[in-house]
Specification:
Strand order of the largest sheet: 2-8-7-6-5
Distance between the termini: 45 Å
Mean pLDDT: 97
Radius of gyration: 22 Å
Helix content: 25-40%
Bound molecules: ligand P71
């Protein structure tokens, strides 16, 4: 006989808590047969980016632009001021960024990479180094296209999926010192700090680390810019784990964190709960002036940056909603719920679980595969085949090739990301996902890898095609 069923809260010895919203509108999902999925996968070249969304059951490709907006955001969409210049919604957005992130001057962009483009072109002199706490694909590419040389300065533990640290996104100051000793401070364009760190598994950066990095920057006359894409999620980990922050609100922690920065760029498609949008904001007027001028070349006028007025309004409202403590607790709580199930069943993954996703450790799923047989890509394909769940490769395919030698970059981490959109799926969806991951793990021994048969030049993971070995 089974035990009395227990709620999740009871299993953890506490009262349950739930999402601080209810569902007003639903979007039906399609469920498919394994044969349909096998066909769809082959057509997609075993690349989940190339699947049609109608062939996907639970879409965990990304948390980017996939969130559900609130009724308030949708109401805001109706108040779009679609003036070419000086839209009311721009001023509302500017006010929200000043209030929650604390930066003076705002340039809106169509999404994160538009902002990365502007700041990389404006703040890097070709040949300069750009140290960062691990790379992000688009961030590094824009830095390289502006002539920068990316250098990884994240703590070593970040590259070890089994190391359980509280702040595995931190910058290693000894690595910064070593870089300055080698190239000199003048050869450093700025420090590119991401919080949380996407490619490290959504791992956070501590306030103590940011303070130390700021002091280091002041000593060496180097600027510090934040990739604020998931900085609200980062604030949650500080509140939970860092001494002195338990009684501070997420909004207070975010503002303090940003106070150590010279500026930030944002893909608002994540934390800020919108389907499209981004920005770059700084305190330095000449740098702002340069980006405000460049944005008219690449995105649109500086009061819309490639967005409709209604998109800016949704972003302004989403920015405020994103820092509500109850929201962020339930958002990260859902990711953890999935993580706890998988952990309990001994599924190999990046630990501890970070903010936006579960990162399965494909190397430990498939020890029989070499990295050149694309274990993480293979795992994403197997998951889709099993249940119609769409995950994303974050391993050797994502890492691309070395700009000088042309060889594959070979990251230590070979991960398959189950990314949880905000306010979209239920706990029952998470149960279905967990069971599918377990089924794929149980069937791991028979799996052979993939061969890449088509490789595009830029950000190859988006459009590469594979065939089974
Ligand atoms: C994610 C994305 C979206 C994405 C981008 C590239 C490849 C696959 C998926 C986008 C980020 C991000 C960070 C930390 C900047 C961007 C670019 N992430 N910084 O994780 O995570 O923003 O997509 O709005 O242009 O699925 P953008």
């Amino acid at each position: 006989m089974t035990d009395t069923p227990r709620t999740f809260g009871q299993q953890l010895g506490r009262r349950s808590w739930a999402e601080p919203w209810k569902i007003k509108m639903v979007e039906p999902l399609t469920m498919s047969e394994r044969g349909d999925r096998a066909r769809a996968l082959e057509e997609a070249g075993y690349n989940t980016f190339l699947l049609r969304s109608r062939d996907v059951y639970i879409d965990l490709l990304t948390d980017s632009g996939t969130s559900a907006m609130s009724d308030r955001q949708w109401a805001g969409m109706m108040r779009g001021d679609e003036a070419y210049a000086g839209s009311e919604n721009f001023y509302h957005l500017e006010e929200a960024i000043r209030k929650y992130y604390g930066f003076k001057y705002l340039v809106p962009t169509h999404q994160g990479r538009g902002a990365e483009h502007l700041i990389s072109r404006s703040a890097i002199t070709p040949g300069q180094y750009v140290p960062g706490n691990m790379y992000f694909t688009t961030t590094r590419l824009h830095q390289e296209m502006a002539g920068g040389i990316f250098t990884d300065v994240i703590v070593d533990e970040a590259h070890d999926p089994q190391h359980r640290g509280d702040f595995k996104g931190n910058i290693d100051l000894a690595k910064l010192d070593a870089l300055v000793a080698k190239v000199g401070a003048a050869a450093i364009a700025y420090i590119s700090l991401a919080a949380t760190v996407n490619m490290a598994g959504g791992q956070p950066v501590s306030m103590a680390n940011v303070k130390a990095v700021r002091a280091w920057c002041d000593r060496h006359g180097v600027r510090l810019f934040l990739d604020a894409t998931r900085a609200v999620e980062n604030a949650f980990f500080i509140q939970e784990r860092e001494p002195g922050y338990a009684d501070r609100s997420i909004a207070q922690i975010l503002l303090e964190f940003c106070s150590f920065m010279d500026g930030a760029w944002m893909s608002a498609k994540k934390d800020s709960l919108v389907n499209i949008g981004g920005w770059v904001a700084v305190n330095d007027f000449p740098l702002f002036e340069e980006m405000r001028n460049l944005v008219v070349v690449f995105e649109g006028l500086h009061t819309y940056g490639g967005l409709a007025g209604r998109d800016m309004e949704a972003m302004a409202i989403g920015t405020a909603e994103s820092v509500e403590d109850a929201h962020i607790r339930s958002r990260i709580g859902q990711v953890r719920y999935l993580g706890m199930l998988l952990e309990e069943w001994g599924i190999p993954m990046m630990e501890p679980v970070g903010g936006h996703a579960i990162f399965l450790d494909a190397r430990r799923f498939y020890p029989q595969l070499t990295q050149d047989q694309f274990p993480a890509q293979t795992l994403a394909a197997e998951l889709y085949l099993d249940s119609g769940i769409r995950a994303m490769e974050r391993g050797i395919v994502s890492a691309g090739r070395n700009a000088t030698t042309g060889d594959h970059n070979r990251p230590k981490l070979e991960l398959t990301r189950l990314t949880i959109p905000r306010r979209v799926y239920t706990q029952a969806h998470m149960d279905v996902v967990a069971e599918s991951v377990k089924a794929v793990y149980d069937a791991r021994a028979a799996v052979r890898g993939l061969r890449m048969e088509y490789e595009p030049r830029y950000l190859r993971f988006f459009q590469a095609r594979f065939v089974p070995l």
